[in-house]
């Protein structure tokens, strides 16, 4: 199937979110087809997390539409959520639970029962390398292991779409590499949107990049095209996201 013929799995159509008179995001539009890994880049406060929460149905949009696998997340959220795995930056990992009991809790919440429940819990424990800590309270685990638990719950129901907000935040270089390798493997058959501040990871994981600044989408295109001029991604980041006053001064 050609790229243009692939079904859209993540769609933002004119997404806008106001808090009072403040526009957290304004008319954000993009579409991600099946089997693509896309980086979502921008400075703190640019609107990345807001956009992701709108796409997952966690927040309601002021205007526009968010769709996951064709399901409108405002009117058909349950159906969309069945196709979606979401890893927020600071997910709800109950500290007194062990990874196994936590995964069992999420399996029950998603209606995964019987043999499939056991099969899926064991599969994500293995996939996310949780065997050494499976009986320890989540609150006693390192940041790296908590991220693995968060990844495991996002993968538990075998979603087609993954949205991950800063999946490598606070991790050491070895842990970052483990998460990166896992995302590359997952990207072979899933659609992934991830935000990150580690720009060198974009080259390793993503074929396409979205830049957002002050709530507006500034760039949407292939990573290869962006860096074809020989400039590092950091320079493009500044170009698309620097405050307007600084851009004007530089010009």
Structure description:
It is a single chain. This protein is an alpha/beta fold. The chain folds into 2 domains: 3-83 and 160-250, Rossmann fold (3-Layer(aba) Sandwich), CATH 3.40.50.300; 92-158, no CATH class. 37% of the residues lie in helices and 25% in strands. It contains 10 helices and 10 strands. The chain has helices at residues 48-56, 77-82, 99-109, 114-127, 143-155, 173-186, 199-205, 223-226, 233-241, 244-250; strands at 8-19, 22-33, 37-41, 63-68, 71-72, 84-87, 161-165, 191-195, 208-213, 216-222. The chain has a 6-stranded mixed sheet, with helices on both faces. A 4-stranded antiparallel sheet has the order 2-1-4-5. Strand 1 (8-19) and strand 2 (22-33) form a beta hairpin. Helix 4 (114-127) runs antiparallel to helix 5. The longest helix is centred in the middle third of the chain and has 14 residues, at 114-127. The N and C termini lie far apart (44 Å). The mean pLDDT is 90.
């Amino acid at each position: 199937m050609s790229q243009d013929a692939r079904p859209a799995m993540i769609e933002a159509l004119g997404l806008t979110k106001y808090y009072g008179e403040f526009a957290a995001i304004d008319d954000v539009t993009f579409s991600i087809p099946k089997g693509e890994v896309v980086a979502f880049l921008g400075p703190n406060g640019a609107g990345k997390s807001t956009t992701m929460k709108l796409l997952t149905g966690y927040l309601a949009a002021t205007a526009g539409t968010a769709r996951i696998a064709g399901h409108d997340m405002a009117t058909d959220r349950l159906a969309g959520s069945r196709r979606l795995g979401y890893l927020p930056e600071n997910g709800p990992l109950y500290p007194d639970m062990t990874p196994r009991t936590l995964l069992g809790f999420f399996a029950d919440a998603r209606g995964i029962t019987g043999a499939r429940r056991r099969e899926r819990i064991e599969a994500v424990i293995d996939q996310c390398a949780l065997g050494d800590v499976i009986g320890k309270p989540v609150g006693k685990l390192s940041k790296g292991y908590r991220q693995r638990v968060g990844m495991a719950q996002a993968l538990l129901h075998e979603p087609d779409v993954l949205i991950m907000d800063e999946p490598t935040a606070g991790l050491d270089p070895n842990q970052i590499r483990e998460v990166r390798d896992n995302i590359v493997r997952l990207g072979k058959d899933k659609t992934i949107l991830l935000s990150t501040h580690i720009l060198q990871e974009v080259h390793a994981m993503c074929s396409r990049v979205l830049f957002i600044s002050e709530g507006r989408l500034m760039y949407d295109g292939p990573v290869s095209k962006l860096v074809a001029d020989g400039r590092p991604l950091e320079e493009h980041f500044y170009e698309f996201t620097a405050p307007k006053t600084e851009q004007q001064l530089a010009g």
